Amino acid sequence: MPKTIRELADELKVSKQTIQYHYQRLPTKNQQKDSQGKNMISLTAERIIRDKVAKPLVAKGQQIGGKKETKDSKENNELIFTLRREIEELKYQLDKQLATKDQQISSKDRQLDQLTKLIDQQQQLQLAIVAENRQLKEHVQKLSGFVGTSKSNQKVQSTENNSIQNKGRDDKQGKKKVPQSGNIQKDAPKNKAHKNWWHFW
Questions:
Q1: Which 8-state DSSP code applies to residue 178?
Q2: Among the residues of the chain, which ranges form H helices?
Q3: Phi/psi at 2 (5° precision)
Q4: Would you call 41 helix, strand, or coil by DSSP?
């Protein structure tokens, strides 16, 4: 569909004079007019004008872009330099912190080693104390066994001593007593009854 000069200028974002200039330089076979006598641009003419207008626009854009790129590249270089400095500073601080942490960790390791040694020593002392307590208990049991046997021996000895003393008394009493009746066998069981140990208590 044919376009007017104004419509094409608006599309290409250029002035109406620019389109008019290029339109007048077209071959006469590509120039058209409508019924009212206005210039109309056919598809072929539009393509030719677009090519001619677009080339200078691209060149201008590249020049403007080149200036922008130069400015942007300077800003980018400064930004890159600043970022590198910050990265180096952060690395330095990180290395410093890591060194501090390494020292703290090695200090904690030494403390753990000392605590482990102390715990080992404490366990050895406890084992030694338990063994000593066992030996003391066994020794006390042996001593109590000796004391028990010596007490029972003393009881037996005191019982024997008492029975010997009582026997001696009985013998003395037996000599003094003369059986009046001639029956000695009747008197003998009485003497035996007096010699039993439960009578001495």
A1: -
A2: 5-12, 16-24, 43-176, 184-195
A3: -65, 150
A4: strand
Q: Are 32 and 5 in contact (CB under 8 A)?
A: no
User: What CA–CA distance (Å, rounded) separates 151 from 163?
Assistant: 18
- Specify the amino acid at residue 118: L
Structure tokens at 120: 């080992």
Residues 6 or more apart from 163 whose CB is under 8 A from it?
195, 197, 200
Distance CA 135, CA 124 (A): 17
DSSP helix/strand/coil, 62: helix
Report the predicted TM-score, pTM, of the whole model to 2 decimal places. 0.31
CA separation for the pair 125, 135 (Å, rounded): 15
Q: 171 pLDDT exceeds 60? A: no
* Whether the Cβ atoms of residue 19 and residue 5 lie closer than 8 Å to each other: yes
C-alpha 91: how far from chain center = 26
71-80 in b/e form (b: 16+ CB < 10 A) is eeeeeeeeee
pLDDT tens digits, one per residue of 79-103: 888 888 888 889 989 999 999 999 9
